Amino acid sequence: MYVGIDVGTSMVKAAAFDRDGRELGVEARPVGLDLRGGAVEQDMAEVCAAVVAVLEALTARVPGPVELAGLTGQGDGVWLVDAAGRPVRPAISWMDGRAHELVDQWLADGTFETVFRRTGSAMFPGCPGPLLAWLDRHEPDALRRAAAAVYCKDMVFQRLTGAGRAVTDVSDASMPFLDPRTRRYDNGVVELLGLTGRRRLLPAIGDPIATGEASGEGLPAGTRLSNGPYDLPACALGAGVTAPGDGLLIVGTCLASLVATTELDLGGEPAGLYISTDRPGRLLRAMPAMVGTAALDWVLRTTGARHEELDDLLTAAPPGAHGVRVLPYFAPSGERAPFVEPGLRAELLGVCLESTPADLVRATCEGIGYAARHCLEAAGLTGSLAVCGGGTRSPAWVGLLADVLGRPLRVVEGEVGARGAVLAAAERYGVPLDAAAWTEPARTVEPDPDRAACYAKGYEEHLELLAGARERARR
């Protein structure tokens, strides 16, 4: 069997596949987030323990030797480790907002735009550049004790293989220090951010992705393991999004829009990033909005509704949600795609005593759909669109998204990131797998023409409301 490991923000999963791409079993364990006043951290020991637990449970339950394993996980943030790969301090999540004042400063003085014009990366508070600069000012001792500032999957790879040095891949390194033309760190960007003295912390880049053998913890000793790509490009691989112009929408904790491209355009409004892939010359134009299903989670929790009721709630309110509108920018660090606005916050509009929980839930799902449309347009979508993630478990929400986006959706089910991690590992090790069979969509959902026309007007109204919200965020 082939094993994919996906170390997510709130859930760690391991999935087993047969040679034809059929999912044989999945094991999952939740991991906690420590949220305090805009800071969002994770316990690295807890994350590693969850990885080992899901792998042990999976290999015990699903028969057969492990041919190879691929590793993926959440991107961005800062995971400081010592020379042995041990945590120096808790990991800082990509959702963290404590560095927003630095990003505001760089937006004002032109540093932000200069970095984008050099690397195609629009920094946000939870990416390594601002976080390392924040740590340099507030926790310099942690940086002195660290051997490397890695990413989530890199920390896990070092733990599972006992690798002697920290290593990442071109996809994780893409934000914000990698020059996508040379596929190496841009030391000029490091200097711009005041981090020349911390340059040693940037991990070596495995290009192509690094490989190693499992040491026996979680996976059988000697199992071939590859490190990367991180979860967004892994999902693109797992969904079969490789042809230029084709796109993927991931409806997860992060609402991520990706479009495959061979062109590098460093003009226009700085936003999102270009993700380098294991194939030189092939990029993903990414617009990873900060809040996806997390916004819906908050609304469901606040209204006392359960996730199991989502389809019924969406059916109970009509398109337009009786005039209720939600700008779904709930992240404490604001928004990063398709624009960067660290001070932006969510807004609920048109609510009155007659509004129902169903209205609020439907308006939230519509708002997330409008945000996705904004991101996909900015990313340059021209071809087919695949969709995956936890949000796609709701047929009613998938139908709503097809209507809001006004296009057919290829729904890819199962553990798409883990599937992509296996496909990347197979390519790296020269194991021939039928990628078309592995990435076959479960179904295609067509938009309803009348509802799509209604939502086209709603989208224009959304953009107008958003413009006002962005103005207020800057005051």
TrEMBL record:
Keywords: Kinase, Transferase. Pfam families: FGGY_C (PF02782), FGGY_N (PF00370). One of its GO terms (molecular function) is kinase activity. InterPro entries: ATPase_NBD, Carb_kinase_FGGY, FGGY_C, FGGY_Carb_Kinase, FGGY_N. One of its GO terms (biological process) is carbohydrate metabolic process. Residues 279-426 form the Carbohydrate kinase FGGY C-terminal domain. Belongs to the FGGY kinase family. This is Carbohydrate kinase.
